[in-house]
Amino acid sequence: MRREKIESDMVFYKFKALDNFEHLFDMLVRERMYAATLSELNDPMEGIIKADPTVPRSMFDEWESAINDVRIASFTTEKDNELLWAHYADGGRGCRIGFQIPEDVEFSLVKYKNAPTWDGGPIDSGKLQRLLSYKLSPWRYERECRVVLKNNMYIPIKVTSIEFGPLVPEEKRKMLEHMIELLKPNVSLSHKRFWGKVNPIHTTGRPVKVVIRYPKGCERCEDCESRADKINRMSESS
């Protein structure tokens, strides 16, 4: 597996809940991202690989020892995916953090295939990164990137943008936006106001009015209203 190099203008994303928003401010102020242990990740298959039939059982402990103190910083290139909002940003009550990484940091694009095979050879950092950058195909929607670390808990980052989900309570969102503007005025802030994509239902009978569900507390901005009007005009012309 090729270890990717960072380009200077590359932006990555991390979807996070806001239950403990000190994690957000740790990323913002200390400019770092936490790397989780394998047991902290949400895929129970993390760290499980195949061993070539020629590898004796006496060497299995070598693999266990190699991954014992491994940590993984995971993020995505996917900017706006409803499943990522749902699974990692508390169903739209969290946020999406855009950030950049120093050019000397190497990462891998996760491959969505069956577990890789270990040939029994020495497990250096390159092999460890390769063997730990596979996940089963149901995780494909994540489009995950990861940095594999040993003896380190964080990778350096620089936050460039924060988008709050459509279901973040308004008072909480405004408080966080105010704090971020004071701490990091150059960080771009936005609010995801329209939840998901709505496709009109085409019928052969009388026109059907499409009902738009607005998130609680939504101010029904012009953007939301114009999309709703457009959808209903499409349904009436069907």
The strand line-up of the biggest sheet is: 1-8-12-6-4
N-to-C CA distance: 49 Å
- The shape is elongated
What is the gyration radius calculated from CA atoms? Answer: 22 Å
Structure characterization notes:
The chain has 238 residues and is an alpha+beta fold. It folds into two domains: 4-183, no CATH class; 197-236, no CATH class. It has six helices and 15 strands. The protein has helices at residues 22-29, 60-67, 82-88, 125-131, 170-183, 222-236, and strands at residues 4-5, 12-16, 32-34, 36-37, 50-51, 70-76, 95-100, 106-109, 111-112, 117-118, 134-135, 144-150, 154-156, 158-164, 188-191. The strands form five sheets. A five-stranded antiparallel beta sheet has the order 1-8-12-6-4, covered by helices on one side. Strands 2-7-14-15 form a four-stranded mixed beta sheet. Strand 14 (158-164), helix 5 (170-183) and strand 15 form a beta-alpha-beta unit. The radius of gyration is 22 Å and the shape is elongated. Residues 197-201 have low confidence and may be disordered.
What's the topology here?
Layout: E1 4-5, E2 12-16, H1 22-29, E3 32-34, E4 36-37, E5 50-51, H2 60-67, E6 70-76, H3 82-88, E7 95-100, E8 106-109, E9 111-112, E10 117-118, H4 125-131, E11 134-135, E12 144-150, E13 154-156, E14 158-164, H5 170-183, E15 188-191, H6 222-236
Parallel strand pairs: 5-10, 9-11, 14-15
Antiparallel strand pairs: 1-8, 2-7, 3-13, 4-6, 6-12, 7-14, 8-12
